[in-house]
Amino acid sequence: MIIGRITAKAQTTIPKAVRTALGLSAGDEIAYEIEGDRVIMRRARVADDPFLNDFSAFSEWSSEADCKAFDNF
Length: 73
Prior knowledge:
It is built from 2 helices and 2 strands, in the order αββα. By secondary structure, the protein is α+β, with helices and mostly antiparallel strands.
């Protein structure tokens, strides 16, 4: 478990291990999802991010089965 701290201004630093795991760097956007008493933080989906876009643009992944595999992301 990674523990952080919130400042008096409700700010926190994202720990290096989390930044590395999500591939985050300065200026990147993050998204939060609240599920009961848990919060999921993930890298925000940005339209021009090749790592998060629809992989059907790659001819080797253009079959219908491949495209449907990414519908849940």
